[in-house]
Amino acid sequence: MRILGIIPARGGSKGVPGKNIKLLNGKPLLQYTAEIAVESKYLTSVILSSDDKQIITVAKSLGIQVPFLRPEELALDTTPTIDAIIHALQWYENHAVFFDAVCLLQVTSPFRTVKFLDKAIEKFIKSGCDSLVSVQKVPHEYNPHWTFEVNLEGTLKIATGEDQIINRRQELPDAYHRDGSIYITKTEVLLQKHSLYGKSISFIETPPEFYVNIDTLGDWEKAEQMIKNNLK
After folding, report:
1. CA gap 115, 207 in Å, rounded
2. Residues 184/124, Cβ–Cβ less than 8 Å
3. Coil/strand/helix, residue 140
4. Band of the pLDDT at 232, cuts 50, 70, 90?
5. How far, in Å, CA of 123 to CA of 104, rounded?
6. Which of 111, 67, 110, 108 is nearest to 90 (CA)?
7. Mean per-residue pLDDT for 100-105?
8. pLDDT per residue over 65-87, tens digit each?
9. 65 secondary structure, DSSP code
10. DSSP β-bridge partners for residue 176
11. 232: which residues sit within 8 A by CB, 6+ positions away?
12. 184 bridge partner residues
């Protein structure tokens, strides 16, 4: 299976200014993802999609291909990531290069390992599903069977639509939330359905000891502390 690894890293980050190439323990944040992506035995190619020349320079120094400059209109705060992915696929198709699937690796999850990445790709291939996402287990107090929505009358209803709430924690089914570390999707689903997920979604649970998703300065500080704890 031909799988394109895409690392999206636009300029203009607001939560953590310049975060994509900001130094984390002496390394640009981008480097953590770049290193494991190029080591993967399943990614046919690994590219950066960016509009920022500084980020592109760093990516090239790390051995990441940058075949194009992402258009400005696809590098806005409001631009969905899938639009950047489709742009990359269409660029390759215009050059008669085709892929069966895309593996999206966001810079904001720096501590995933190549072993975990390859395990995710293996599971995706074996599953035959439209997609695979990395997830974290939802704490029981936030389980959707224990959460509520406001109905038209202004009162609460169980978010899952059930009439009776599950009383015992032990009876709650496992629930998961996507954690942003890995997304793998068939090309046909991306292009035809404009979706990262499709109808059938496989999953892999991220080990909590290396989970962080850096969107804010608080997340950055958490990542720094995780490194300190690991060094100890």
Report:
1. 12
2. yes
3. helix
4. low
5. 15
6. 67
7. 98
8. 999 999 989 888 888 999 999 99
9. B
10. 137
11. none
12. 103, 132
